Structure of Ceramide synthase 2-like:
Amino acid sequence: MLDALCQWFWSDRLWLPGGLSWADLEDKEGRVYAKPSHLYITVPFAFCFLLIRYAFEKWIATPLAASAGIKQIVPMRAEDNPVLQHYYTTKSRNPAQNDINGLSKKSSLSVRQVERWFRRRRTQDRPGVLKKFREASWRLVFYICAFIGGIFALYDKVWLFDTKEVWTGFPKQSMLDSQYWYYVLEMSFYGCLLFSVAFDVKRKDFKEQIIHHLATLMLLSFSWCVNYIRIGTLVMLVHDASDVLLESAKLFNYAKWEKTCKTIFVVFAIVFMVTRLIIFPFWLIHCTWVYPVLYYPPFFGYYFFNGMLMVLLCLHMFWAFLIVRMVKKFMFGTISHQTEEPCPTKATRKKNHDVLVICNHDYVTMETRSTLNKFMNSHLLLVRIISEQG
């Protein structure tokens, strides 16, 4: 049964153009082709990334945070109370008023004391700014290295400037060492994120993060196994470009360098629009949608890959809408405050600082988090449907 399922999954007609088989991609005449076994090394490499990350955060990120004025603040711990602790861990972190009244009677505490206990307990679990700073700095360093490495791997390739060359000779395109290491390091990094998610800052989109990392690894693995390597490297390069600026903005946000943060965020917004709403659809998706049929008739792998890219484009468009609205809000909103109040109050400064809330890959306002979650759920459902049909 398992062998039959495996044979069906790796069927030539699913992943390769008509008239070709996996036998055509066997190494011969000095040509080396991508194989699934090449990706086995990403698992130990992911654990190596964990060790490197630990050393980086301890010996580099922490002193850097200290120089930026970020300190480890230990919140006041909630007093030991088995009744309240049991409710907190098993039922809810934010009890309703009726539950608070009931807990007050069970724990022999006043209603105000119960409310104070839950506030302190939530604060106790809330990750500190130092932890967020260390995580963002680690991701920033990787994205910088990945982006620079991607440029070095692609700068002399003809398909970087002429995307039609991506399909010249497909699928009999020999694997290059630069492509191999680009894929291995990117996949190892996402594997590292997947392994470390248990002790990273737990966001409200925790489940979506897990599925996002799994989907990313699945797409990279798919493009590798069916020799979509050339277009895969271009997609990775385009996405890494804006991630560098996003993580930079996060660092300055945590350090409370508000003007620098907002400036970088504006640059990030511009780069995001150019790379993901212009280059991605009009160069990369055009490359995967139009050019392949000039060489081969459409096949399942063609539709599957383009379907996943279209889902990604829809997500980019939604993020772009939030980014534009966010840029408009904090730019014009801040100018208005400065005009009306030359000496802003402490509350106003806090409002300006808190206007940027980082959620997963983008800045979103608190009022749009629920909208983002609904969109992400529909996006993940569509990905799951496409995967099941494959």
Notes: Confidence is low (pLDDT under 50) at residues 334-369, 378-390. Residues 82-125 form a domain with the Arc Repressor Mutant, subunit A fold (CATH 1.10.10.60).
